[in-house]
Amino acid sequence: MTTFDQLPAEPGTRNAERQPQNPEPGTHNLRIGIIDYLNVEPQYYRLQERLAGKPVRFLRGVPTELNRALAAGEIDLAPVSCITAAELADQVAILPDLSIATVGAVKTVLLFSWMADPRELDDVRIALSDESATSVELVKILARHFWQVTPRYSVEPQDLGQMLRRASAALLIGDDALVESAHRREIPGRGQPYAFDLGDEWLKWTGLPFVFAVWAARRAALPAIAELDIVPALYESKADGLAHIPEIARAYAPRLGLPVGVLTKYLHDLRYDLRPRDRAGLLTYFLLALPGFKPEGLQCWHPQEGMRQLFQGIEPADVVRFNPITA
C-alpha cells in the first residue's frame, strides 16, 4: 500500500517539528523521496496513482533532508542535490533522462545582495541556505572563479529578512526564493536588495545549462526498483506532468500566494531531462566543485539497459581548463 510520510529534520532547522511515521513492523516498502518544492511536481504527477497497490512509501523533505536520508539508507530513491549524487557515486546510480535543470535564469536559486554587483562581495559575509547543497557550492564556485571574490560564509535557516540583517548577501532556494523574486519586497530599515539568479550567472560564465538535482537510487535497491516498474512510472509521470503544467500551477498557487501565470511560466522554463548539454554542464560543475572527482565513477542505470557511465562522450566547458581546482 502506498503511504506518505515526512522526513525528520535536523535539530534547529525550520522543519524540525516534522514527525515521521514509522513503517509497520515486517513491511519492506520501497522508500521514495519527494522534494517539497513546486519545481519537482511535474515529475511526481499522478505517480501515487501509477504505483497504487505496490509496496511503496513516499517521504517528503527539502533537498538537504533527502540528501541525508539517501546517504543514511533511510530512502531508496529520490531527486537529490546533484553534488550529493557525486559524493555517493560508489553507492548510488543515476536514473537517465530525469533532472531539475535550467538554461539561464531559474528563479528559485537566487543570491540577494546589498551590493549592486557580485564582484563587490569580497571579504563580506554571505548567508547560505540550510536547505541546499548544490546551490551552496555553486555560490562558492562563482565567487571564486567568475566574480573573483573571497567572501566569508555562514549556513542559516531560510529567512531573507533575518539573513540580510546579518550578512551582505543571502542565498535562497526553492519556493521561498520564488516568492521573494515575485514580490521583490523591501527589508525593513534597509530597502530592497539586489537579486542575482545563479542559473543566469552560470550560463554567462560557461554557456551551459545547470543541473540542480538528479534522481539517484541506492544500488542495493535497483532490483526492487526494476521489479516494481518504478522507472517507467516516473517517465510516464513526467510526460503527463509536463502536459498538465497549468493544472499543477493552479493547484499549487494558493500555497505560495502567487498568480497561476507566474507559476506556469516558471515550470515551463525548467528542464526535466538529462541531455548531453545538461550532462556537460553537470560535469563542469563537478570538476570545479569536487577536487579529485572521477567522471567514470558516476554511473547511470536503466532497468533494461543496465549500468553505464553518465559522462561517456561528454566534455566539460573550457572554464575547467582555465580554473584549475586545488583541494
Straight-line distance between termini: 47 Å
Give start-end ranges of low-pLDDT stretches. 9-27
Strand content: 15-25%
Q: From the helix content, strand content and strand pairing, which structural class follows?
A: alpha/beta
Under CATH, the topology of the largest domain can be stated as: D-Maltodextrin-Binding Protein, domain 2
Let me know the number of strands. Answer: 13
Query: Order of strands across the widest beta sheet?
Result: 8-7-9-6-10
CATH class of the largest domain, please?
A: Alpha Beta
Task: Specify the biggest β-sheet.
Answer: 5 strands, mixed
CATH superfamily of the largest domain: Periplasmic binding protein-like II
Total helical elements: 14
| Mean pLDDT across residues | 91
Helix fraction, binned, reads: 25-40%
**Number of domains in the coordinates?**
2
Assigned CATH architecture of the largest domain: 3-Layer(aba) Sandwich
Any idea what the radius of gyration is? 19 Å
Would you list the SSEs in sequence order as H and E? EEHHEHEHEEEHEHEHEHEHHHHHEEH
What does this entry show, briefly?
The protein is globular and about 55 Å long. Strand 12 and strand 13 form a beta hairpin. The chain contains 14 helices and 13 strands.
What would you say this structure looks like, in words?
Strand 7, helix 5 and strand 8 (152-156) form a beta-alpha-beta unit. This protein has two domains: 3-99 and 211-257 and 271-322, D-Maltodextrin-Binding Protein, domain 2 (3-Layer(aba) Sandwich), CATH 3.40.190; 109-206, D-Maltodextrin-Binding Protein, domain 2, CATH 3.40.190.10. It has helices at 41-44, 47-50, 63-72, 82-87, 134-146, 160-166, 174-183, 198-206, 222-227, 230-242, 245-256, 260-269, 276-289, 319-322; strands at 3-6, 30-35, 56-61, 77-81, 92-102, 109-113, 125-129, 152-156, 169-173, 194-197, 210-218, 299-302, 306-309. Helix 5 packs across helix 8 (198-206) and helix 11 (245-256) packs across helix 12 (260-269). It is built from 14 helices and 13 strands. The radius of gyration is 19 Å and the shape is globular. With 327 residues, the protein is α/β, with parallel strands linked by helices. Strands 8-7-9-6-10 form a five-stranded mixed beta sheet, sandwiched between helices. Residues 9-27 have low confidence and may be disordered.
